Amino acid sequence: MSLVHLANLCAHLKNCNNVRVATTSIPYTRMHLQTVLGLHKQGFISGIKRGSLNGPDVEPTEVTPDNISSRRLWIDLKYRNNRSVIRDIQLISKPGKRVNLSQEDVKALASGLPVRKITPLQPAEAIFIKADNEIYEVHEAAQRNLSGQALFRVK
Amino acid sequence: MGNKLLKYGGKSGILPKHRPIFKSPIRQPTPYELAEHAKIEQGIVEALPVPKHKNGKELQRVQPFKKVITVDERIQHIIERAAEKDSKIDTSKLTDEQKWKLKRDAIRREFLREAYVLEAKRLEEIDRRSEKLRIKEQQKKEAEERELLKQEEENANVGIPTVEKLLTEGMMRPRTEEEKELLQAKRVLNCHAKELIQKEARANNLLDLYHAAGNFITTEAELDEAIHKAFEVDLGKFVTNETSIEAKLQTPNLAYLTVKMNESLITDQVLGEINGKPGLDQVKEILSGETEKTKREVQMNLDV
Questions:
Q1: In this complex, which of B158, B164, B171 lies closest to A57 when CB atoms are compared?
Q2: CATH topology of domain A92-154
Q3: What is the pLDDT of residues A7-36, one digit of tens each?
Q4: What is the per-residue pLDDT across A31-43, written as a single tens digit (0 to 9) for each?
Q5: How far apart are CA B259 and CA B256, in angstroms?
Q6: CATH 3.30.1370.30 fits A3-84, yes or no
Q7: DSSP 3-state assignment of A96?
Q8: Confidence band (pLDDT; 50, 70, 90) for B274?
Q9: Residues of chain B positioned with their CB less than 8 A from the CB of A49
Q10: What is stated as this protein's family in its record (chain A) (predicted)?
Q11: Which of B150, B172, B236, B259 could form a disulfide with B247 if both were Cys (CB 3.0 to 4.6 A apart)?
Q12: Of B163, B173, B174, Cβ closest to residue A50
């Protein structure tokens, strides 16, 4: 899982929100899919669709090694009262400085406590954690007694 | 505004619900009504003790259906029984007023019977209509559900449920064995096609070299001639301007040369020749004996 790609995704989402884009496409990878599914579950985006470089699929298309290069994930961004639902999205771990959390750290973070340099979780904010090659929201990770790397926070 | 009006949202002029003529049901509940009744969660849970009524009777855990009294039973019980009772009275001993009372009771009973029958008819009609409406609505609901299911099936292939499935079932379908074989065959074909082009180009170059070998200097006389051509001083270049113009006019025109060269290039390309000499294709045909064969066929055709 590349933090650089994740940083690119965060920057892309911010840029799209700044110019009020309705739908945007991101690379078709497992990491991107997990990330946007997490955002969707938390209600930060309204939809995820499979598609190609040209746009979301009208007819279902099978992904094969022949067309994988042109496959994209199309996400529907959310706006309310002419303001984007995602106010800010930023990395916690950086490629040069990764922040690994123990089970206790994860639970503390989920309980609204600060952990090292990570500021406490605010209302309407979500922190995502990578554990066992999956991406979990911090509360879910705390419920499952997981430890892992703090990836990004979104509010 | 009294409290009674508040019940109707503070609005006057709304009539209260009329008192039903039959307080108990007049027919057995339909299967649909039974099913609907079964859906209602009511009653006292098993864990709790059933409270007792003031008179000491225990309440029932689940409220039972009301006892069904059909219209005929009702008429029999209320009207005909009273009529039978009245019929036993000896009217000869009664006063006019008492007789009139009996007659009035009979008239009232008759009216009541009519009212019961009419009400029963009305309820039947209501049942019939509501049943018809219910079936219609059910069909509409089923059609909507079918449509929704169809829509969901269509959306499922591009929407969230399928997207979630990607994580468990894999994001890409790997190539099957057949596809792998086909791809390998394509790659081999491409490789061979490229090799062929390269070999043809080499053969062309070789043939070119072979034709060019005709102009190579091989004898002493040819060498002398070539040296003479190369180093003989052209006096025309050093005379006055006028003579140089003459010399220029005499020399072949450059444009004319270019055109001629282009023409020769085009003919070479069309005929598959190299500088007017046989090209690779012609050589191949001769070597394979195809030219000879064609010539013979043409000859035979002409003879015929």
A1: B158
A2: Dna Ligase; domain 1 (3.30.1490)
A3: 999 999 999 999 999 999 999 999 999 999
A4: 999 999 999 999 9
A5: 5
A6: yes
A7: coil
A8: confident
A9: 158-159, 163
A10: Belongs to the universal ribosomal protein uS8 family.
A11: B236
A12: B163
Q: What is the pTM of this model?
A: 0.52
Q: Do A65 and B174 touch (CB under 8 A)?
A: yes
**Domain ranges for chain B:** 19-86+95-165, 193-303
Q: State whether residue B160 sits within 8 Å of chain A by CB.
A: yes
Which residues, including other chains, have CB under 8 Å from residue B130's CB and lie 6 or more apart? none
**Which ipTM value was assigned to this complex?**
0.77
Inter-chain touch B172–A68, beta carbons under 8 Å: yes
- Which positions 166-225 of B are in contact with A (Cβ < 8 Å)? 166-167, 171-175
pLDDT digits (tens, 9 = 90+) for B149-198: 887 777 665 666 678 888 888 889 999 999 999 999 999 999 999 999 99
Among A47, A56, A63, the residue with its CB nearest the CB of B172 is A63
Q: Which residues contact A6 (CB under 8 A, 6 or more apart)?
A: A31, A35, A91, A151, A152
Asked whether the CA dihedral A22, A27, A28, A31 is positive or negative, the reply is: negative
Question: So what's the pLDDT on residue B252?
Answer: 56
Q: Which residues on adjacent β-strands are paired with residue A39? A: none
Contacts 24+ apart (CB under 8 A), B266-275: B274/B204, B274/B207, B274/B208, B274/B211, B275/B211
How many CB atoms lie under 10 A from the CB of residue B47?
5
Q: Where are the domains of chain A?
A: 3-84, 92-154
More confident residue, B15 or A144: A144
A66-110: per-residue pLDDT in tens? Answer: 999 999 999 999 999 989 999 999 999 999 999 999 999 999 999
- B290 vs A117: which has the higher pLDDT: A117
Residues of A in contact with B173 (CB under 8 A): 62-64
How much is the average pLDDT of B46-63? 86
Q: Is the dihedral of CA B54, B60, B66, B69 positive or negative?
A: negative
The token pair at B246 is 């003459």
Contacts of A116 (CB under 8 A, 6+ apart): A99, A105
**Percentage of chain A lying above the pLDDT 70 cut:** 100
